[in-house]
Amino acid sequence: MPEVAKGFIFDKRNPLMKLHVNGWVERHKLSVALAGIVIQLAAIAEPLHFIAHSLRNGTAGKLFPPRPPSKVWRRLYRSHKEILGALGDASPTQYGDGKSILSLLDFIRAAKRWAKESPDELNAWSSSVEPRMWLIFLKRAFREAKKFHIYNLREYRDLIREESDKGSKIEQLLREKPEIYFFLLVILPCMCEYETLPLSLIRKARRGEEKAIEQLVRLDDSMVAEPFIQRWRDAGTGQERREKVEWLAGWMREGIGGQLTLSSVKQSMAGLIALMVSLNPVAFSPRGRHIVKISSSDIRDLFNAVARDRGTSFGAGRVDEDLYHISDESWRQAVSKRKQAWHASVPKYVSKTFV
């Protein structure tokens, strides 16, 4: 084995190495950074569903605070970067909090732009670095990657162990971060049920598209106060206006049709996992560089691995019971559709970092 790779060997006696998700990562040879992302996305689906479902259906009681003020709430429809930063604050990684993650994305994007626009400068810089320095860099990189992977697995283990205590941390986050509240109450249900972002629905609703207006009001009943919806309501004959008032009242009362099932949240997270892999498929190991490819079936196996680690797997195959009823073809189609929806919705400053 090359000298540079020796520091990358994991101690198999470490209990974290026996987690089923670690076996999944090793089989599919994901990079450490990508592994940390997809593990968290798969594991967080259940607590996300619990919180979002509780908020939408009013079953949270006094556990969670009331919705942020109207002025703050409206601003969040166009504050995607702030929402991403708040999500980073809520789930800090070794890269740091939300601000640090956004800065890292900016740095990566700037570096890629420099490499693309100034290849001669990049080649000159690469040639100026002594081979000994590259070796030192690689040793340090593999050593840090090893620590990062252990950190990710520990965070994952703590997440699935602490799910019974859903109250205190979440309540604090919702009080301090209106962006988190908005993500759970609006963005996540919108992506799960309508496979698009709320801002896309607003654009269509402004053009007078009735279906988009219905979806917006079902998603967020406060949208009935928006001028473009009031103009739509007040247009037409007296009978038409009365019908629209009744429709709006019914949509507000009924909410979104699917009521945000756990299965739909997991399908949405599966689509996001598929997108993250496609945006960042290159992985490095002591043996060299390779391209990561995973199928919808592989992603389903990841959710099965999470269920086994939780102790909630179902049947002889020890699978995720929330996905057990979905056929392979239906699952493949669902993941593909959600991947496309996330790809169309991921802010450009994120997707351009990886593409």
Short description:
The protein has 355 residues and is mainly alpha-helical. It is built from 17 helices and two strands.
Describe this structure in words.
By secondary structure, this protein is mainly alpha-helical. It folds into 2 domains: about 5-180 and about 265-355, no CATH class; about 195-255, no CATH class. The protein contains 17 helices and 2 strands. The protein has helices at about 20-30, 30-55, 70-75, 80-90, 100-115, 120-130, 130-160, 170-175, 180-195, 200-205, 210-220, 225-235, 240-255, 260-280, 295-310, 330-345, 350-355; strands at about 280-285, 290. Strands 1-2 form a two-stranded antiparallel ribbon. The two termini are about 35 Å apart. The model is unreliable at about 1-10 and about 350-355 (pLDDT under 50).
Topology, element by element:
Elements: H1 20-28, H2 32-57, H3 70-75, H4 80-90, H5 98-117, H6 119-128, H7 131-161, H8 168-176, H9 178-194, H10 198-206, H11 210-219, H12 227-234, H13 238-254, H14 262-279, E1 282-285, E2 288-291, H15 296-310, H16 328-345, H17 348-354
Antiparallel strand pairs: 1-2
Can you give keywords for this protein?
2 strands, two-stranded antiparallel ribbon, 2 domains, 355 residues, disordered N terminus, 17 helices, mainly alpha
The rough form would be described as globular
* Uncertain ranges: 1-9, 349-355
Give the H and E element order.
HHHHHHHHHHHHHHEEHHH
Number of domains: 2
Span between termini = 33 Å
Number of strands: 2
Helix count equals 17
Strands ordered across the widest β-sheet: 1-2
Please summarize the sheet with the most strands. Answer: 2 strands, antiparallel
Helix content: 55-70%
Instruction: State the oligomer.
Output: single chain
Q: How large a portion of the residues is in β-strands, by DSSP E?
A: under 5%
Structural class: mainly alpha
Q: Give the C-alpha Rg.
A: 23 Å
